[in-house]
Amino acid sequence: ATLLGFVRLRLPPPWSDAPEHQPPFEELRGAALVRELHVYGQLIATADKSNADAQHTGLGRTLMAEAEATARAHGFRRVAVIAGVGSRGYYRRLGYALDPRPGLFMMKELAFLAPGWRQALLPAARCALIALLPPLLLLLLAWRGAADRVLLRRLRVVAEDGLQRLGRDPSLERVGGACRERRRVPPARQRQLGRRGVSAVAAQLQGEPADV
User: Fold this and answer.
1) Which residue from 76, 86, 129, 196 could staple onto 71, CB 3.0 to 4.6 Å apart?
2) Which residues lie closer than 8 Å to 43 by C-beta, 6 or more apart?
């Protein structure tokens, strides 16, 4: 494997108010720190784009973009770079500006939606989901219970209406009466008469003419 370049990024822990935990420079509070950016290769002119060497091909810009995305994913909104006088112009083209405070760091404010913001919001979103999940489940169960009660009431109304209609149907009353009269014919007599004969006898017992 060939090493073409590297970037050294420091993600400091949250600074406390204790004197021994204070940052050496006030501008570093809440900022990720790029300690070094280095791209290997033969030294060539910046304007020379025809050379196939690793220098001036965008590798350093890619490494800095990756460092900024990593810092944003860990919740940092600022990045500081230790840069000498000769390299400050390069970082200015990447959006950095010289901080006039004693550290003389090149600083850049990261936008809220800068690359890596989804990973930065993931822990907070996970905590919010864990906190909201129980009440949401309770609301869902309550809604399902109310919906089931409404459905049962509707089914009960439909069933009662159907029973009332069946009770008012005269044809069903005649069928029920014929069935009752047919049960009055003894089984031995039913075997002698057969189905049509039993129906005729049942009709006669009910007071209707037999349809034979």
Assistant:
1) 76
2) 55
Residue labelled with tokens 């014929």: 178
Alpha-carbon span 112 to 120, nearest angstrom: 10
Question: What is the pLDDT, as a whole number, of residue 31?
Answer: 92
Question: In this predicted structure, what is the pLDDT of residue 210?
Answer: 47
Please tell me the predicted confidence (pLDDT) of residue 98.
94
DSSP the chain: ----EEEEEE-PPPP-SSGGGS-SSGGGTTEEEEEEEEE-S----TT--S--SSTTSSHHHHHHHHHHHHHHHTT--EEEE---GGGHHHHHHTT-EE--STT--EEEEPPTTSTTHHHHHHHHHHHHHHHHHHHHHHHHHHHHHHHHHHHHHHHHHHHHHHHHHHHH-HHHHHHHHHHHHHHHS-HHHHHHHHHHHHHHHHHHHHTS----
pTM (2 decimals)? 0.54
Alpha-carbon gap, residue 44 to 35, rounded angstroms: 24
To which residue do tokens 């029973």 refer?
163
pLDDT of residue 75: 87
The letter for the amino acid at 126 is R
Q: How far apart are CA 191 and CA 149, in angstroms?
A: 52
Given this model, what pLDDT does residue 172 score?
47
Walk along the chain (212 residues) in steps of 10 and give the mean pLDDT of each run. Answer: 87 72 83 91 66 71 93 91 91 94 92 79 76 74 74 74 61 50 56 56 53 46
